[in-house]
């Protein structure tokens, strides 16, 4: 049983969040805070880790030292290493800007191919389902032989 109204609201909310986040990333609306926390636009605006509010220990992927983080969504690097090489503390990429990202024709093409593949898989699944359904129907129509096991 699904609650259509709730699901619709959730789905729309998801898209709405996505649009707002992307818009914030595009205009780098919280640039000052983003740079302070040493995060790339993707990690800062697009990925919202669901974090438990408990101090959590982690090892920096560069200096291998042990650090403490105020929640459970620990980063990849420590602040020192990230700052020194100007990397994103979360994912370890260079601190790029939104405008550095160019959507290439290859990306569009790959995306399109992914959709086509997904559609193809769906079609195959449906064919298989139809086939099973047909077999089951046939089976139901097969007359049951009289049983000889228990003569009266
Ligand atoms: Zn480090
Ligand atoms: Zn990042």
Q: What do you see in this structure?
A:
By secondary structure, this protein is mainly alpha-helical. The protein has five helices and two strands; from the N terminus they run αααββαα. The radius of gyration is 27 Å and the shape is elongated. The chain has a two-stranded antiparallel ribbon. The longest helix is centred in the C-terminal third of the chain and has 37 residues, at 105-141. The site of one zinc ion has 8 residues, from helix 3.
Bound chemical compounds: zinc ion
Widest β-sheet, arrangement of strands: 1-2
- Radius of gyration, CA atoms, in whole angstroms: 27 Å
Poorly predicted regions are none
How many domains? Answer: 2
What descriptive keywords fit this protein?
single chain; 152 residues; mainly alpha; 2 domains; 5 helices; 2 strands; 5% strand
Give the SSE layout.
Blueprint: H1 4-27, H2 31-36, H3 41-46, E1 56-59, E2 66-69, H4 79-84, H5 105-141
Antiparallel strand pairs: 1-2
The protein binds zinc ion (2 copies).
């Amino acid at each position: 049983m699904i609650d259509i109204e709730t699901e619709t609201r959730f789905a729309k909310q998801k898209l709405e969040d996505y649009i707002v986040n992307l818009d914030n990333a595009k205009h780098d609306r919280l640039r000052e805070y983003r740079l302070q926390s040493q995060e790339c636009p993707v990690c800062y605006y697009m990925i919202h880790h669901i974090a438990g509010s408990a101090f959590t220990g982690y090892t920096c992927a560069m200096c291998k030292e042990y650090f403490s983080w105020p929640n459970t969504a620990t980063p990849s690097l420590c602040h020192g290493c990230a700052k020194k090489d100007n990397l994103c503390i979360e994912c370890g990429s260079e601190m790029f800007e939104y405008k550095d990202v160019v959507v290439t024709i290859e990306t569009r093409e790959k995306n399109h191919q992914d959709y086509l593949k997904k559609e193809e898989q769906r079609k195959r699944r449906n064919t298989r389902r139809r086939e099973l359904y047909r077999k089951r129907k046939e089976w139901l129509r097969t007359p049951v032989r009289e049983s000889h096991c228990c003569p009266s």
